[in-house]
Amino acid sequence: MFRRLSKGVKKFWAAIALLSVEMTIILTLFIIALIAFLYLTRRIFVLNKTKLDDRVFAYLKNHVSPRNNEVMQFFTFLGTHEFLIPANLLLIAYFIFIKKDKWYSIKVPAIALSSLGLMFLLKHLFSRPRPAIPLLKEAAGLSFPSGHALMSVTFYGLIIYIVFKSYRDKDWKWVLIFLLIVLILIIGFSRIYLRVHYASDVIAGYCIGFLWLVFAVWLLNKIEKYSRAKFDHVVEHPALASPA
Predict the structure, then answer these.
(1) Which of 10, 107, 131, 186 is spaced 20 to 30 Å from 203 by Cα?
(2) Which candidate, 16, 20, 40, places its Cα nearest to that of 211?
(3) pLDDT in tens, 160-178
(4) Alpha helices in the chain (DSSP H)
């Protein structure tokens, strides 16, 4: 019994050792995001505790100004469908006509559309009303999770993934990644500042967006790998694939 347990532990640590630093970080963040989302949903919809949301609104109330309003409206626009739809189309066109990478031209709309569907599904499932007193104007739809936060993570997060995988200049690569992460955070913050989302909505949107992005990229990469293994040799050597 002890020997079997010892072998099992050794196999487990051997598997962990095979994971790259990159995979270890992603797996850790994935688990943290999942736990955080489950914690938030329990706290809000089961225990009915909203102290975090109230405290954040109370704090931000002291920092409201016309200039801050303009800045937050600008950043919140970068997470709207008015901006993200043409941005996604431009990214697809870039991979089709410039990079000539058919798989990324498939991954971009696949992640965008599936993220949108997931967002509407979760909003309908939780049906949380938006904050009663918006700062400037009311926002349509439901509140939990934040669509801006979710869609920003899946869109800009996908760009982060692309930059990490393909950008050769290490210095500029990390500068771009840092700026994109900051952009994602500011977009979510702008929704809280404008009082069209609670802080818990935005955190939940980040968590779900990250979970879905990791899963979608993993799944699409698996499909790409399978497709290349199965069909590329047929294209390159059609005579070998034809029946005798």
Answers:
(1) 107
(2) 40
(3) 999 998 888 888 899 999 9
(4) 2-18, 21-41, 51-61, 66-77, 81-93, 102-126, 147-166, 170-193, 199-236, 238-241
